[in-house]
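User: Reviewer 2 asked us to show a designed sequence for the structure in our supplementary figure. I'm pasting the structure tokens here. Could you produce the per-position amino acids so we can include them in the response letter?
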């Protein structure tokens, strides 16, 4: 399996502070601020048939995430878009996942890091379906309140509770964890937003303490274009039992039907199928 090839031992090129370096040489020193203090933001994007879906939105989010952590990514949206496209082309992929990342360097090693250089790298690799037969279980951690962390940044530090929660779910035989927010409302999985179909309407949690995913926003637009009513609101976990269909959305996850949440079970239904088709068509609209 390709996933078992370690990520630091592959062929290819990584864009690193404006230049392409051979994949295996794209290294950091162990004393890197981003590693010790999580002063690091990143993106996850997918390229479909040679076009990165919503590339500029992702570039803008990388810049915004950096600002939420108090640093300026030293490239514009246009420069990031061009660098990502060049990386995909250099790797010769038509369909792949793209991972831009920005982090504070090694110039200072302490909580204060005002003088550190902001580094940027872009890698891409082939990555198929993120989830298979997805079953969720309640997470061990909740999403933090907006006054306790920069909750709208796609920041490395916020994934600490995601990896712990996902590992705990996997240990119980589930594919991922369903995280509640600090008030006890349904929030998201460890890497995707969630939607419920209740009596023909789409219900999804208000993104007031987690990432308002680019795929989430796309799916809301697709649903509205189909005349499906979309309700963004606080959702109590008890309401999961009322849903006829549940699916999650994310760049890696795309649209994935959820087949169980602990003891509750769900089938892939007509609304999910319609949106899956529309999403598939939209991501490839440039070659249609
Ligand atoms: N929430 C979390 C925690 C994520 O990691 C992701 C994936 N980036 C999402 C939601 C979905 O975001 P997007 O659709 O922009 O990929």
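Assistant: Here is a per-position design you can include in the supplement:
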């Amino acid at each position: 399996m390709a996933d078992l090839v370690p990520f630091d031992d592959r062929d290819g090129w990584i864009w690193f502070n404006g230049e392409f370096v051979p994949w295996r040489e794209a290294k950091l020193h162990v004393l890197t601020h981003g590693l010790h203090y999580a002063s690091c933001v990143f993106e996850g994007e997918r390229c479909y048939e040679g076009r990165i879906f919503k590339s500029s939105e992702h570039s803008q989010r990388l810049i915004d995430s950096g600002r939420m952590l108090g640093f300026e990514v030293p490239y514009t949206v246009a420069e990031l878009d061009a660098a990502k496209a060049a990386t995909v082309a250099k790797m010769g992929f038509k369909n792949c996942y793209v991972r831009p990342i920005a982090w504070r360097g090694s110039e200072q090693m302490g909580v204060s890091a005002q003088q550190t250089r902001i580094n940027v790298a872009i890698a891409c690799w082939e990555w198929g379906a993120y989830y298979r037969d997805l079953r969720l279980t309640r997470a061990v951690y909740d999403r933090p309140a907006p006054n306790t962390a920069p909750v709208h940044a796609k920041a490395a530090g916020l994934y600490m509770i995601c990896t712990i929660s996902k590992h705990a779910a996997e240990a119980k035989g589930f594919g991922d964890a369903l995280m509640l927010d600090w008030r006890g409302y349904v929030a998201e999985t460890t890497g995707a937003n969630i939607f419920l179909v209740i009596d023909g309407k789409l219900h999804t949690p208000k993104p007031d303490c987690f990432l308002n995913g680019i795929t989430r926003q796309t799916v809301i637009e697709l649903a509205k274009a189909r005349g499906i009513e979309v309700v963004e609101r606080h959702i109590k976990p008890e309401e999961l039992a009322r849903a006829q269909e549940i699916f999650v959305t994310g760049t890696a996850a795309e649209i994935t039907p959820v087949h169980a949440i602990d003891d509750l079970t769900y089938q892939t239904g007509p609304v999910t199928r319609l949106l899956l088709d529309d999403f598939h068509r939209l991501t490839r609209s440039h070659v249609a």
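For the response letter, you might also mention the following. The chain has two domains: 13-125, 134-283. The chain has a mean pLDDT of 97.
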